[in-house]
Amino acid sequence: MGVACARELALRGAAVTVLERDRIGRGCSYGNAGWLTPSLASPLPNPAMLPKAMQWMFNPESPLYIQPRLDPSYLRWLAGFLLSTRKAKYERGTEALVELCRASVDLWEEVAKRAPGSFGFERHGLLAVYEKAESFEAARSSVDFVARRGIRWERWTADEVREREPAIVGKQVGGYFYPDDAHCEPYRAVTTLAAEARAAGVTFVEGAEVFGISGSGAGPRMLKTTRGDVKVDRLVVATGPWSEQLGTMLGVRLPVLGAKGYSLLLPRANPHPTRSIYLIERKVAVNPHADALRIAGTLEIVRNDFSINARRVDVILRGAKAMLNLGDSPVVRETWRGLRPCTPDGMPLIGRARGGGEVWLATGHQMTGLKTATGTGLLLAQLMSGETPRFDPEPFRADRY
Ligand SMILES: Cc1cc2nc3c(=O)[nH]c(=O)nc-3n(C[C@H](O)[C@H](O)[C@H](O)COP(=O)(O)OP(=O)(O)OC[C@H]3O[C@@H](n4cnc5c(N)ncnc54)[C@H](O)[C@@H]3O)c2cc1C
Question: pLDDT > 70: what percent of the chain?
Fold first, then answer.
């Protein structure tokens, strides 16, 4: 988010410095599933999830886990999350995210055209594979919903899935294919965008952690960083799952919580998938990189607990092995975990923060931060520059908490 916003602001003539605690692109954007899929762009609080959530809570291998904690701000977040699972709210959120995501994927495609081969961008579609007839049939209403928002889709029988995507070797009953979806290599996507930002004049300072902020209202702010003090006229907070801490420094409530997920990098499968695959019932995301296979999954609402749960990692691997030919004991090249930055209502915060000063937000993108990054950068820069925004900013209002 930080890189995308910085690039768009620099293109409008602003002098922009990105302060990064670690290294650019090493946060949640590093090892995500790399999907750029408008067909799957919806807020996390989903009415369909509620009936299963209680069951999942007590299953150590379930794809969703909500950590029990007695911390008041965590409980407040959870209450907001539960209240946001209303169908009408979910549908309004999905509509806005699909629009932001469609424009963002087009913008990513333009980046790929300017730097061919740099981050493995491919628009080969997404295949959602179903193993149970009931879930295949039940999916139809959500397929129709996104179709009404302009997402093209095809329904494939089990035979068509086997024929058109021979990488699927496990038993299945059919799939939905979304031909306009894309995928890429996430870390290289960030570094490619960062190179463009640098060329547009952005200064990157790595290893600079912001640990204190003074100043108020529309006036300048002084940032205390581990690499010295920095005075800024305008501040964009794009610190992902760590945004709540920045909010505390600014005296603004930013209820952004980390929802942990894992990804594993494996050797190429045989046959290797030609497109992204979603193993629906197992909630496993598959992304075929040119020289590797990335599989990802689980969502653990845990605040900022960064530990690795070996059992859940193993469930992802077992799930992929059941459906793809990965060999008997595939060598895992990398095991990664990341914290998705989640607001209670599952919608990103894009725009001016509460208080009316020069503090702006681009955070809380939960499961959709790569696929909506370029559009978010554009929207934020348009709002900050007083241009007419390309998207309706209302669903993303940053002062709603
Ligand atoms: C397993 C998994 C799979 C996913 N798959 C997808 C997918 O396929 N498609 C998709 O669109 N999204 C996906 N996501 C979600 C996506 O990864 C996130 O939404 C996105 O990375 C969030 O980007 P961000 O810029 O907000 O946060 P980050 O990438 O985490 O960046 C925040 C940055 O802020 C820095 N920072 C924090 N605090 C400070 C400070 N005090 N001072 C200075 N710097 C600071 C951090 O070091 C970090 O680099 C997935 C996530 C996970 C975990």
Answer: 100
